[in-house]
Amino acid sequence: NFQLEKLVESVKSDLGTAQEEKVKALHDEKAKGCNVTHVENLLSEKTKLATELEKGEEKSKKAMESLTLDLQEISKS
């Protein structure tokens, strides 16, 4: 009877440990999912900002070329 009680206590303890590990694993998996989503959002934002920067550089380059042409026209006059 004593051995049976010890066995029941041991099984309960193991079950409690297994449940705690399951909860921790689920929490860790959820955290990883959130981190992946966050990283994906950051990469998307980085790509968007890089594209905007390239467009801005192109506009600046065209504006400088236009100013150069205008200055050349003025200096010819």
UniProtKB/TrEMBL annotation:
<protein>
    <submittedName>
        <fullName>Putative WEB family protein, chloroplastic</fullName>
    </submittedName>
</protein>
